[in-house]
């Protein structure tokens, strides 16, 4: 890493952290009920239970801001790891069947146990996401070519298709399940509390640490698995650690925010356009970048449909699609 590249990385990191601070401030102050920055600070430092603005900040906006940071950072980091493991720029956390597994588990909780609150879905969503990802990883690792990126992708697609069919079957036969499920399925930060973050906090933190440990291994895998093995690197270990990190990150994020799609695909592409393809840099930058994107989507969703709001997952997909198309087109032009 040259001096100029280190300087550029440092500046980008500072910029990402500054952007995160700005988005946190917007998340705490912007909404159907605008709250001035001074009032937000006062609510955080000297909360007044009789002040309506303080109540809004502490009971509604602080929890959804924390959830946005955790879920956004986790999904972006998981997407970066998956793209590195599979050497596929179109890979995202859903490749392991995470969203589909979480959806089936949530529907099971609704139909079998009568749970109707997003807070009650947390462990079910986390467990469903983890089980689906483990099944995909185990099946994809079987055989003489076990762990092959193409085999892993095909296995994930097959498991996702099967779980999606189960989800559709339940939704078409259980009207009550549809009414509860459709709110969770769009992905968002509202109606969740800090207790949900505490529930998945340790698994997500472990996932972050494991993902960051994969940086050098992912850089070597990018050269080709044979080349990485020839250089003495244990490709199987990096793959196992990376998949475990993805399971923990995606399971936790999906449990607290619902199946937010596209974020894990968009953020790594945007970062590569700025700092290149060094995974040791991308993994570090993915956390504040992903958190900022999800918080910005949540803030935008609050103000574009007043007095109601649009869920953050819908905003990410709607705004992110043209951005990703632009990034891909730009890279293609550069290659040509």
Automatic annotation (TrEMBL):
<feature type="transmembrane region" description="Helical">
    <location>
        <begin position="243"/>
        <end position="270"/>
    </location>
</feature>
<keyword id="KW-0472">Membrane</keyword>
<protein>
    <submittedName>
        <fullName>Iron complex transport system permease protein</fullName>
    </submittedName>
</protein>
<keyword id="KW-0813">Transport</keyword>
<feature type="transmembrane region" description="Helical">
    <location>
        <begin position="62"/>
        <end position="82"/>
    </location>
</feature>
<dbReference type="InterPro" id="IPR037294">
    <property type="entry name" value="ABC_BtuC-like"/>
</dbReference>
<feature type="transmembrane region" description="Helical">
    <location>
        <begin position="282"/>
        <end position="304"/>
    </location>
</feature>
<keyword id="KW-1003">Cell membrane</keyword>
<keyword id="KW-0812">Transmembrane</keyword>
<feature type="transmembrane region" description="Helical">
    <location>
        <begin position="310"/>
        <end position="328"/>
    </location>
</feature>
<dbReference type="InterPro" id="IPR000522">
    <property type="entry name" value="ABC_transptr_permease_BtuC"/>
</dbReference>
<dbReference type="GO" id="GO:0033214">
    <property type="term" value="P:siderophore-iron import into cell"/>
</dbReference>
<keyword id="KW-1133">Transmembrane helix</keyword>
<comment type="similarity">
    <text>Belongs to the binding-protein-dependent transport system permease family. FecCD subfamily.</text>
</comment>
<feature type="transmembrane region" description="Helical">
    <location>
        <begin position="121"/>
        <end position="140"/>
    </location>
</feature>
<dbReference type="Pfam" id="PF01032">
    <property type="entry name" value="FecCD"/>
</dbReference>
<dbReference type="GO" id="GO:0022857">
    <property type="term" value="F:transmembrane transporter activity"/>
</dbReference>
<feature type="transmembrane region" description="Helical">
    <location>
        <begin position="94"/>
        <end position="115"/>
    </location>
</feature>
<feature type="transmembrane region" description="Helical">
    <location>
        <begin position="152"/>
        <end position="171"/>
    </location>
</feature>
<dbReference type="GO" id="GO:0005886">
    <property type="term" value="C:plasma membrane"/>
</dbReference>
């Amino acid at each position: 890493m040259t001096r100029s590249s280190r300087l550029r990385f440092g500046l980008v990191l500072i910029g990402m952290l500054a952007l995160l601070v700005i988005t946190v401030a917007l998340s705490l102050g912007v909404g159907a009920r605008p709250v001035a920055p001074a009032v937000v600070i006062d609510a955080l430092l000297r909360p007044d239970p009789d002040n309506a603005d303080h109540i809004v900040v502490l009971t509604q906006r602080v929890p959804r801001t924390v959830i946005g940071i955790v879920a956004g950072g986790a999904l972006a980091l998981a997407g970066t790891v998956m793209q590195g493991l599979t050497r596929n720029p179109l890979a995202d956390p859903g490749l392991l069947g995470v969203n589909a597994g979480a959806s089936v588990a949530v529907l099971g909780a609704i139909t079998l146990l009568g749970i109707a609150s997003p807070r009650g879905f947390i462990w079910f969503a986390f467990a469903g996401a983890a089980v689906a990802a483990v099944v995909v990883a185990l099946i994809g690792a079987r055989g003489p070519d076990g762990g092959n990126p193409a085999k892993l992708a095909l296995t994930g697609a097959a498991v996702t298709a099967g779980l999606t069919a189960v989800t559709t079957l339940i939704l078409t036969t259980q009207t009550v399940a549809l009414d509860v499920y459709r709110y969770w399925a769009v992905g968002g930060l509202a109606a969740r509390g800090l207790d949900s973050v505490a529930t998945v906090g340790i698994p997500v933190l472990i996932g972050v640490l494991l993902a960051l440990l994969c940086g050098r291994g992912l850089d070597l895998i990018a050269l080709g698995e044979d080349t990485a093995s020839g250089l003495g690197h244990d490709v199987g270990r990096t793959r196992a650690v990376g998949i475990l990190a993805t399971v923990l990150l995606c399971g936790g994020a999906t449990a607290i925010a619902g199946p937010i799609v596209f974020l894990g695909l968009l953020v790594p592409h945007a970062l590569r356009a700025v700092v290149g393809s060094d995974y040791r840099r991308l993994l570090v930058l993915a956390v504040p970048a992903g958190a900022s994107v999800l918080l910005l989507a949540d803030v935008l969703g609050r103000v574009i449909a007043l007095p109601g709001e649009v869920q953050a997952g819908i905003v990410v997909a709607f705004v992110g699609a043209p951005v990703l198309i632009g990034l891909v087109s730009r890279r293609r032009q550069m290659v040509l």
